[in-house]
Amino acid sequence: MSTVEKIRKKTGIDAAVMNGDISMLLGDPLLPPAQIREERKRKLTAAFRLFGKFGYDEGIAGHITVRDPEFEDHFWVNPMGVAFQKIRMSQLLLVNHKGEVVEGNGYLNGAAFTIHSHIHRTRPDIVAAAHAHSLYGKSWSTLGRLLDPITQDACAFFADHGLLDTFSGVVLEMGEGVTLAKALSHYKALILQNHGLLTVGKTVDEAAWWYITMERSCQAQLMAEAAGKPVLIDPEVAIRTRAVVGTELAGLFSFQPLYSVICEEQPDMFD
Length: 271
What we know:
Layout: H1 3-11, H2 23-26, H3 33-53, E1 63-67, E2 74-77, E3 93-96, E4 101-103, H4 110-122, E5 128-132, H5 135-141, E6 161-164, H6 174-184, E7 189-192, E8 196-201, H7 204-227, H8 235-245, H9 248-265
Parallel strand pairs: 6-7
Antiparallel strand pairs: 1-2, 1-5, 2-3, 3-4, 5-8, 7-8
Helix pairs in contact: 3-7, 3-9, 4-6, 5-7, 7-9
């Protein structure tokens, strides 16, 4: 059985993709680190532009990171004070786990370092992580609750997201980073009470898509509960649905339409 066939069998993607070779989306792990780095930085820059387009920025808050393929205790992050809508790939910072800017010019956001350094250190399976103060995510976070499986899209997070049920201020102390990483555990996403959302993935594509669809799921549940009492999807059905819409490959696939559009609309970001 080929690698692609194994992935299809594991994820149940055959139910959604009925023809074609999906290996092109998975990437080639044998490529030189420089090529993998270039691709990760391109996707990271595009993710910022999309977050800006969707209005996820809030002053200097918000950050997305991607692990460097060669120096795995280093990650690329946005410089503090640069609008998501205007970030260029050349402005990204390479930071190590000591908080040192190894490459790039610009300010390093202390909260970005505290949050992401702990995530990348404690979850070696994670390549990318996204956090922002988007409107519906931070609104939902004030309720101190997990999302319910009320839509097909929300099922992607059923029994696969956690809750950090305390708020102790801006995440600057290293101990707070430890607490956050512990609350994330093995999940793909985390609701930070009175704060916002955080999502992770094995690709920038995946981490960014989980954030986008989680923000929309928060909006959907807030609207549904304002109108009445939503009908929950049966847990067994929610799990089966997650096996299609909540897999790594589903996250990777779902990001592609957005990526193609933003690349065509804003090619200047790669200057």
